[in-house]
């Protein structure tokens, strides 16, 4: 999606350690108009798929998932929580994932009442690098017995293995911007 690639070039920053900082518009300050255009593009890419719900992970996936949901007939958005709280009651699906950006492992939790066997789910997230977060969501979906119709990613680091592994496993992965390389020294970002 050229609009997203252009925005990454304009406002993204490459940090040492293969970190792409896009907090000016994607995962700290949110450009809602851009999110809406991203949702429209995922709706085009997944046209013909029956989607009952969108599943994402807190926190950065929530905004883009909510904007996307409007383009899929205002389906509900469920987000996996990263911490247990007194507000999480009833039976839950739980797994653990390792976050590259946070450099730690954390639980991922969804109340069982929000994922029902046989529902058709679209997974959405802001980044895909090594695939740990997405694999955690896939594990939760397996426990719930839902059908994964596809995976929508805003920014994929194509030089890391996550996207390839998910596609090799048979999932339809639609990334709106695939970074083929980036250099912290020069600040350059190339797209596939």
Automatic annotation (TrEMBL):
> Quick one: which residues bind xanthine?
20, 27, 157
Tell me a Gene Ontology molecular-function term this record carries. xanthine phosphoribosyltransferase activity
* Domain Phosphoribosyltransferase residue range list: 47-154
EC number(s) per entry? 2.4.2.22
Q: Where in the cell is it found?
A: Cytoplasm
Q: Which reaction does it catalyse?
A: XMP + diphosphate = xanthine + 5-phospho-alpha-D-ribose 1-diphosphate
One of its GO biological process terms is: purine ribonucleoside salvage
Q: Which InterPro entries match?
A: PRTase-like (IPR029057), PRTase_dom (IPR000836), Pur/Pyrimidine_PRTase (IPR050118), Xanthine_PRibTrfase (IPR010079)
Tell me the pathway.
Purine metabolism; XMP biosynthesis via salvage pathway; XMP from xanthine: step 1/1
GO annotation, cellular component aspect: cytoplasm
Per its UniProt entry, what is the enzyme's top EC class, as one word?
transferase
Question: Which keywords are on file for this protein?
Answer: Cytoplasm, Glycosyltransferase, Purine salvage, Transferase
Residues reported to bind 5-phospho-alpha-D-ribose 1-diphosphate: 129-133
Q: Which Gene3D superfamilies match?
A: 3.40.50.2020
**Protein origin, superkingdom:** Bacteria
Subunit-structure text = Homodimer.
What the protein does comes down to:
Converts the preformed base xanthine, a product of nucleic acid breakdown, to xanthosine 5'-monophosphate (XMP), so it can be reused for RNA or DNA synthesis.
Q: Which family does it belong to?
A: Belongs to the purine/pyrimidine phosphoribosyltransferase family. Xpt subfamily.
This chain belongs to the protein called Xanthine phosphoribosyltransferase
- The species this protein was found in: Bifidobacterium subtile
UniProt lists the gene as xpt
């Amino acid at each position: 999606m050229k609009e997203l690639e252009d925005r990454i070039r304009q406002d993204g920053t490459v940090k040492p350690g293969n970190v792409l900082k896009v907090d000016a518009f994607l995962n700290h300050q949110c450009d809602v108009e851009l999110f809406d255009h991203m949702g429209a593009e995922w709706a085009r890419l997944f046209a013909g798929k029956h989607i009952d719900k969108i599943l994402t992970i807190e926190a950065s996936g929530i905004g883009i998932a909510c904007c996307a949901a409007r383009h899929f007939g205002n389906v509900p958005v469920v987000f996996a929580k990263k911490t247990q709280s007194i507000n999480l009651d009833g039976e839950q699906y739980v797994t653990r994932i390792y976050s590259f950006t946070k450099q730690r492992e954390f639980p991922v939790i969804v109340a069982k009442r929000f994922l029902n066997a046989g529902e058709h789910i679209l997974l959405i997230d802001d980044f895909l690098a090594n695939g740990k977060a997405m694999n955690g969501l896939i594990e939760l979906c397996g426990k719930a017995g839902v059908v994964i119709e596809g995976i929508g990613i805003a920014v994929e680091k194509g030089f890391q293995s996550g996207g390839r592994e998910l596609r090799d496993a048979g999932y339809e992965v639609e990334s709106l911007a695939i970074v083929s390389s980036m250099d912290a020294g020069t600040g350059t970002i190339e797209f596939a």
